[in-house]
């Protein structure tokens, strides 16, 4: 082994560990680099040592090439431009070491679908039917059948999207009340109506233009506010896995009388105040009330014989509370890292 070869081998480890990709490539592989000159020297090596020399040089070359392809050097050199694939899923280009996650990802249901599934399961156990709401509807189901006459100012509370031919993207699942009363009547009627809703409004951490709700209807003889409070409380305790205190607050909906805002004690801080409840200890969760006689009549139910209650709750809101999500817009961003948590 020649003296310089010995030195080169001695320094090789240090170089591999300390030089950047391009420095290493330049020092060993470039035209004036170490390896080409070692190869040129072969002809000057006595023939008895040539074989051993050749093996040593080849092994140096191999180690340099391995180091370059494994990319094990600290790459501090900005002149090295790594190829990126602009069509790849968003995080594939961030590190060469990372396995393409899309390939080993199994399909899974979206967290909102998981939540809807567990809520429906609770209501099924409580004896409720299920009917999905529509994603496009008409003025009669969105307003008229719910006791919003044409020109009623309360229509403004439900600003949504309309098609040119007068169809509407429903702003709430209450659009299904009339259909449910007709389909499941005569009473007893117990039905939950999950579905996608839309509102024409600016988004923020707790508002979206697209979201899910679950509507519930219960109609029978002698049904009162007490039945409503017990049913909703039971369902929420089962869903949130916690004993809850409840409060009622007046609200306004044309389709109920009385109209109630259903409030629960914060399941996370037991009314002490935390970030989930905005440090007030209580959460205004949903609208509910006794179904207005006009709504019952329009659904073919005689309000003198039967009474009932209804409620509508936002699933995105419930999901955010139960799963500790600070911003409901995350639910629709399609960020795989976020979604894989669930
Ligand atoms: N549809 C109402 C909304 O989205 C919520 C609601 C309130 C539904 C009272 C009901 C109800 O069924 O009785 O704002």
TrEMBL record:
Its main location: cytoplasm. Belongs to the class-II aminoacyl-tRNA synthetase family. Phe-tRNA synthetase alpha subunit type 1 subfamily. This is Phenylalanine--tRNA ligase alpha subunit. InterPro entries: aa-tRNA-synth_II, aa-tRNA-synth_II/BPL/LPL, Phe-tRNA-synth_IIc_asu, Phe-tRNA_ligase_II_N, Phe_tRNA_ligase_alpha1_bac, Phenylalanyl-tRNA_Synthase, tRNA-bd_arm. The gene is pheS. Keywords: Aminoacyl-tRNA synthetase, ATP-binding, Cytoplasm, Ligase, Magnesium, Metal-binding, Nucleotide-binding, Protein biosynthesis. Its cofactor is Mg(2+). Tetramer of two alpha and two beta subunits. GO terms for biological process: phenylalanyl-tRNA aminoacylation. GO terms for cellular component: cytoplasm. The keyword Ligase applies. Mg(2+) binds at residue 257. It is an enzyme of class 6 (ligase). Residues 188-321 form the Aminoacyl-transfer RNA synthetases class-II family profile domain. Its EC number is 6.1.1.20. It catalyses: tRNA(Phe) + L-phenylalanine + ATP = L-phenylalanyl-tRNA(Phe) + AMP + diphosphate + H(+). Binds 2 magnesium ions per tetramer. It comes from Candidatus Dojkabacteria bacterium.
